[in-house]
Specification:
By secondary structure, the protein is mostly helical. The chain is 70% helix and 5% strand. The chain folds into 2 domains: 152 residues, no CATH class; 76 residues, no CATH class.
Amino acid sequence: MEIFSEYFKKDHLLSQVDARLKLGVSLFVLAMVLSYKGLVFPLLILGISLCLCIRMEIPFKVFLLRFSEPVFIASVVILLKLLFSGQETMFSIKMWGITITGHKDGLMDGLRIGSRILGAVSIVALLGFSTPFTEIMAGLSWLKIPKGLIEISLFAYRYIFVLFEDAMVIYNAQKNRLGYSNMKRGLSSFGTLTGSLTLKAFEHSQNTTTAMLQRGYDGNIPMLKHKPFRFLEVAVSILLVFAMGLVWQI
């Protein structure tokens, strides 16, 4: 459960920066990474993000969980590009009557795509590590993201943990009763678990709606109110984006 929580977000330099500025800088740098044609800039962003994550003392287990999927996707893309794309032959191996050919230009294309994937994910991960979810939602509301989407995201985030706890209670009860002793019983138990969580989700949604209406909820969320920008933070953010833009053009 701790893997999905924000217990590791301690006080550090980035935690004091306005979430709107962090969100704006992240969007600009993300656009630069995705539009860059080479390897240098995405890898530079990846390295900076990793260094900042280490500086923030992010637990290795959390760090590994966040990056395992994008690393796998990037590896698959590189492998597919190496074997099935390109014209310049790098190697050729014949196994069991099948010729496996690697292409140098395909490998380079795969590395460029993979670097953009990892660079983009590192930016999003750094933003998530340094900023609580509610502050990210507040920043999105300042960017005029539809209010309904913000509201649904906040409630969904809140009840992810509630449903996770409910799922663990049901799973442990099933496991203690040998509900996963074989494939057939395991599938049956998993179906029961899924159905129970669906019913609990509807029940929680109805209870939340009733409770909020009884308390006079009118759609305004106090946590989405914003403080004035600080000049120093704005100036540093502009300089940072400008510096990244210069590197991007190299």
